[in-house]
Structures are given as structure tokens and as C-alpha cells.
Design goal:
- There is one protein chain.
- By secondary structure, this protein is α+β, with helices and mostly antiparallel strands.
- The chain has two domains: 8-43; 52-147, GMP Synthetase, Chain A, domain 3, CATH 3.30.300.20.
- It has four helices and six strands, in the order H-E-E-E-H-E-E-H-H-E.
- The strands form two sheets. A three-stranded antiparallel sheet has the order 1-2-3, with no helix packed on it. Strands 4-5-6 form a three-stranded mixed sheet, covered by helices on one side.
- Helix 2 crosses helix 3 (112-126).
- The radius of gyration is 18 Å and the shape is globular.
């Protein structure tokens, strides 16, 4: 079997960010993923389901943006709870058809419209995962603000 090795330079385009992630499989640890900063995630059979990583990436990316936007607006956000419900085909390759994201913002005197605007800014401007997926998967959201 021929070994083909691509160097990072083969994929580099001027003016674009380049990240390298890694996966190691062995009989003991199974599938271990490492991100560009060397944080590890264990994938099934002893960890996260691979297809769940897509929804996790989406809510992680957008939630980070929403928190930063609301903090810059000096909103008294105390907690953000986010869930994603995905719909996939029943047969291989189990294509994603829809992801519905539920945001629950907990804080003092939060304005639901400001939370909605923060989500929209994330989707339109900041979240690379959302921007990448939006043409391939229907993504919807809903927002709840809880006083606390």
C-alpha cells in the first residue's frame, strides 16, 4: 500500500486560517481526537458518537459567540443552556436534514430581543460552523429567557 502524506503547506492559502486536528486509533484507547490545541475527545465505542460531534460543534460555536456578545452589551447573563435536536436519514450515510437549537438564557433583566439578536449575529457573522452548515442542513432555533 502506498503511503501518501500531505504537508500542511499543501493546503495553505494566503489569508486563510489553517488548523490541524488529529485522530489516533489503537486497540486500547480506540478513537481519540485531538484538536488544534491538543485537547482530547474520545469517540465511540468508549465516548462520543461521531455524528453528535456535528451538533456539538454547532452549539459550541454559536454559544461562545452569544455569550461574548451579551457580555460586551453588559447583559447580566448568569447561565446559558443549549440543546440541539437533529434529524437524520434512516439509511446510510444518515445525512443530516435538520438541526433545531434551543437556547435558554438565565440572568437578571435579560431582554429576549437582545438574546435573539446575539444569536442572529452569531449565525450571520461569527459562527464558522453555522455558516458552513446552513446551505446543507435546515437549522432553526428558539429562545427562552429565564429570570434568575
Amino acid at each position: 500500500m502506498e503511503n501518501i502524506l500531505f504537508q500542511a503547506e499543501d493546503w495553505y492559502t494566503a489569508g486563510m486560517a489553517t488548523n490541524i486536528v488529529h485522530l489516533n486509533w489503537d486497540t486500547e484507547t480506540q478513537f481519540v481526537l485531538r484538536d488544534s490545541e491538543n485537547y482530547q475527545v474520545v469517540m465511540k465505542p468508549k465516548g462520543v458518537k461521531a455524528s453528535d460531534l456535528l451538533s456539538l460543534a454547532l452549539i459550541g460555536c454559536s454559544s461562545h459567540d452569544v455569550v461574548e456578545i451579551l457580555q460586551k452589551q453588559r447583559a447580566d447573563l448568569r447561565e446559558l443552556r443549549v440543546t440541539a435536536e437533529s434529524v437524520q436519514d434512516d439509511d446510510p450515510p444518515w445525512r443530516f436534514r435538520k438541526i433545531h437549537v434551543r437556547f435558554q438564557a438565565v440572568g437578571k433583566g435579560l431582554d429576549v430581543e437582545k438574546v435573539r439578536r446575539a444569536i442572529a449575529l452569531s449565525e450571520e457573522k461569527y459562527c464558522s460552523v453555522f455558516v458552513t452548515l446552513r446551505d446543507a442542513v435546515e437549522i432553526t432555533n428558539e429562545v427562552e429567557v429565564v429570570e434568575g
